[in-house]
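Form 7-S
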Amino acid sequence: MQLTSRSRVVVDKKMSFMERLYFPSIFKGMAITLRHLFKRKVTIKYPEQKRKFSPVYRGLHVLKRDEKGAERCTACGLCAVACPAEAITMVASERQKGEESLYREEKYASEYDINMLRCIFCGLCEEACPKQAIFLTDRIVPSSYTRKDFVWGKDRLVEPVEPSQRIDISQRLRRKES
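Output:
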């Protein structure tokens, strides 16, 4: 049974003596190796020299606070739903009396975890958030040897209360608007 009308003629051409020794192929490979040996190196000496990143680079996540120092996240779950890697999990809780300065709304995320090993740094969580609570910064996620160090909770994600220690995302906001 023939599936297509196309056919290909296979030629069994005899190789010459030099082709059978594979010397031309070996010399071509060595020429390519020598050419690359004398090219300019692209490696940088990392701790001393830092590589310049693209302005749209997406790195470390941060949960932002508002001007008064209250957490912006209202545990709506849109970031977790938008995440294609299912890296975000959260538990919503009701705000108690006396916690008005800590949380903006009546509902807040008592637990908020991002599994950095699952995250693909696509930025969909950032786009889905209606309160502009989560952002991907230009910082690199630190490396580690254990898996538990890559599951980040609120203790590592929420930015500090002091305005001087907060992460500046104004350039990222300007790029989103334009």
